[in-house]
What we know:
Blueprint: H1 6-9, H2 22-33, E1 40-44, H3 51-63, H4 77-84, E2 90-94, H5 101-111, E3 121-126, H6 133-144, E4 150-156, H7 164-167, E5 171-174, H8 180-194, H9 200-210, H10 214-228, H11 234-241, H12 246-257, H13 261-274, H14 278-298, H15 309-318, H16 324-341, H17 347-359, H18 367-378, H19 413-416, H20 427-432, H21 443-457, H22 459-465, E6 469-474, E7 477-483, H23 487-492, H24 495-509, E8 514-520, H25 531-552, H26 554-563
Parallel strand pairs: 1-4, 1-5, 2-3, 3-4, 7-8
Antiparallel strand pairs: 6-7
Helix pairs in contact: 3-4, 5-6, 8-9, 9-10, 9-11, 10-11, 12-13, 12-14, 13-17, 14-15, 14-16, 16-17, 18-26, 21-22
Amino acid sequence: MSYLVLARKWRPQTFSDLVGQEHVSQTLKNAIDGGRVAHAFLFTGARGVGKTSSARILAKALNCESGLTVEPCNTCSTCLEITDGNSVDVFEIDGASNTGVDDIRELRDNIKYLPSRSRYKIFIIDEVHMLTTNAFNALLKTLEEPPPHVKFIFATTEPHKVPITILSRCQRFDFKRIALPRIVSRLRFIVDQEGVQVSDEALAVVARKGDGSMRDSLSTLDQVLAFCGNSVSDEDVAALLGVVDRRLIMDGCRSVLEADVKGALGIVAQVDSFGYSMRQFCQELISQFRSISILKAVGDAGDLLELSDAEQGELKALGGQASVQDLQRHLAILLKAEAEMAHAGFPRLILEMALMKMATLAPAIPVQELLARLDSLEKGGALPQRSDAPRPSAPAPRPAPQQHAAPHRPAAAPVAAAPVAAAPQAPAAAAAVQPAPSAFVSGGDLWGSFVQAVKAKKPMLGGALEEVYPVRVAQGVLEIGCLQGSFQLTRLQDPEQINELKSLAQGHFGVPTQIKVVALNGPPTDAAPTLSEKKSLEDAERRAHLRREAEEHPLVAAAVELFDGEISEVQELPQKEGAKS
């Protein structure tokens, strides 16, 4: 006799055998008991959760020779034929290979005949979503008003692909993924019946591999038994299934939470030496930290986690010293690392850097505590300390920032420091000021006032004058220096611009003024800087002064110490009207 795999040998034969689908089995039993059995059913859900098995059990319950019953006897010839799949009145059709309209027409022609031996003629169509649109259309009328001796049972893993016209003619039952403890309990029952020695931890690994599917879990268990025989060890299960040993995962979490960088890196080295996938190990760490976070947040997780009581107790003890905020930060680091591993060629390095960052992560300070400390600083009180942190020592004195000197100009440097006098208001006053041509003590005043006057009347021309050098400025003489090849030189050498400057200078100074524009190979050493350069130097000095004031302010220094930060930028706040300077 050929070997019968566990998934077929231990297939549910009654509604009581269905694991994790009590909402379906109870509804169907009540419908049979109350005589309210519909003519069409649609079973939906993931693979291996009991859809086809439920369809067979329902077919046996409707056609059992002992009469309509909520639990088939599984001993009469009809039940045995349905179990073996060779009943002449129960048709199991594969929707993936019978997709055409001709197949549905043949089925429709067969419907009108009475069942040969049973009470009902039952059509079970698996993966019904694979039928074509024409096939569905051919089935509509028959599905809505079938003969009284016909029942339809559809099964699918993708109900969204079934037309709404079909869905509206069926009673729909959604099968759930089976919880891990329920799968482990069922596997324990089966291995005890088979006489196999295996631990609950190994069965949990097998059940996790099934991912909520009882059939996948039984197939995996079959593979394990073929490898290990009747005595199964945890190491053999981990090696066969290629899963990471849970002890490594626990040790990795413990090293991170205990800030043991060397231990965390040693765990990564072990994972690499065993040949495990770094990305899979990272995913297991994510799952483990998720469990620790949930247990830390809610205490009793209940059905939120698919863990045994022993595993929950171990994880609670592991995360006892960590806060929920720190666990969430660990999860964020692991999620980022896992995403980077998908496209990187050095997953071990990414995982090592992630674990190092997690192990050295500074504890998170609650926002309320930070606000309270800032409020205390603003009121001038003492800085409140955290109960779980030592008092920080006094900060070391910060060295005064080095002041950068402005570019040195031999002749103009003393001149630039001279105070600016008011511009003359009348020709007589202007004539009284006669500066020496070689000195620029009052020439800077004349030049600045002249440029401002020009800018008020001719903004573009005034902007050009801000970029040129005042080589010589006196009553009746105005000599302007422009760098060779500059736009200002080309513009100011235009006769029209010179005539316009003469007119503006005569109106401003009150005397005819000679305008001379000279080309310079470089910045002159015997002339003052341009107004644009002078403004830039003043702005730089003002910003340096503001930064010094900010660094010396006691509130700012306390905030820098509190957050262990640094001053990256200083901005001047606008002065309000009426505010005291």
